[in-house]
Design goal:
Layout: H1 3-13, H2 18-34, H3 54-60, H4 62-67, E1 77-82, H5 92-97, E2 101-108, E3 112-113, H6 117-126, E4 130-136, H7 144-153, E5 168-170, H8 185-203, E6 208-211, H9 213-219, E7 232-235, E8 253-257, E9 265-269, H10 273-281
Parallel strand pairs: 1-2, 2-4, 4-5, 5-6, 6-7, 7-8
Antiparallel strand pairs: 1-9, 2-3, 8-9
Helix pairs in contact: 1-2, 7-8
């Protein structure tokens, strides 16, 4: 029963005056609008509040996500990632501050697209950044191939132009419920394999995998080794990278802070500008 229905029944049972019942009903409606629904209560497939690292920071520590000391950036290229949470971005400012690449949230599940995607995706390239799109996974809603198709159909393409990064799959803690989306490691590994395989069929590139070591090792573990085919984009909010998820010997991107000099999250590419261009060229 909805909060509205429960409030009506409670007011009737206790004989509340019509005015008092109306006030309670208004409160119930407001609560229903702002409560994050569980999957079995019709949760929407997407939110402006879900983006690369939003759930990792909640589970692994907002304080460290926002206050991580700057790591040694020797031999790296600084960049950023954004979503609808940032709205339209003034791209000239982060470019002037030194950002040289960006990942932009395009989709979530099969029911959400970032309303600011085009401004962010085209605007970052317009100032000279290498940029790519990413998809926030909801593995309990539909299979990996279906979500890969939705991603590609709504901005997650790729071109070997030296300016477009491989599409990224953001797999992290479930914002709506069970940490691993009700899947064991074998099932989650198969879901990621489906997504990456379908993306490769559609675009010619396997997905960059965005995740945290803790989430991946819990929910996928050693059931899938992608180090030879899929670049790793790891979230770890500290000045030292630490252990990587099972299946990778090195990271391609490191999201080291959730807020800082650039809009959105702060990232480092593990290489120089020429290597970044080669990644984008394929």
């Amino acid at each position: 029963m909805t909060p509205e229905g429960r409030t009506r029944r409670w007011a009737t049972r206790w004989g509340l005056p019509a005015t008092a019942a109306a006030v309670l009903l208004a409160v119930a409606r407001t609560t229903a609008l702002h409560a994050e629904p569980l999957p079995d209560e019709g949760a929407p497939e997407g939110s402006d509040q879900h983006y690369a690292g939003s759930e990792i920071a909640k589970r692994e520590g907002w304080a460290s996500a926002r206050s991580a000391a700057a790591p040694d950036q020797t031999g790296t290229v600084p960049g950023m990632d954004v979503s609808s949470h940032q709205g339209d971005v003034d791209w000239g400012r982060p470019w002037g501050d030194g950002a040289r690449f960006a990942y932009v949230k395009a989709t979530e599940g099969t029911g959400y697209t970032n309303p600011h995607f085009q401004q962010q995706y085209d605007g970052s390239r317009g100032v000279g950044m290498v940029r790519g799109a990413y998809h926030f996974a909801l593995p309990d809603r539909s299979d990996g191939g279906t979500q890969a198709d939705y991603f590609v159909d709504h901005g997650g393409g790729w071109a070997g132009d030296g300016m477009t990064l491989p599409g990224a799959l953001d797999v992290e803690y479930n914002p709506y419920g069970d940490t691993c989306y009700g899947k064991d490691q074998d099932a989650m590994a198969e879901w990621v394999r489906q997504f990456s395989g379908r993306l490769a069929e559609r675009t010619g590139r396997h997905a960059t995998i965005y995740t945290s070591t803790s989430w991946w090792n819990q929910c996928v573990g050693d059931k899938l080794r992608l180090g030879e085919s899929n670049p790793l984009w790891v979230a770890h909010y500290t000045d030292q990278l630490g252990q990587l998820p099972h299946g990778w010997d090195y990271q391609t991107f490191w999201q080291w802070q959730a807020a800082g000099q650039f809009p959105g999250d702060q990232n480092l590419f593990n290489g120089d500008a020429g290597q970044l261009t080669r990644l984008a060229t394929g």
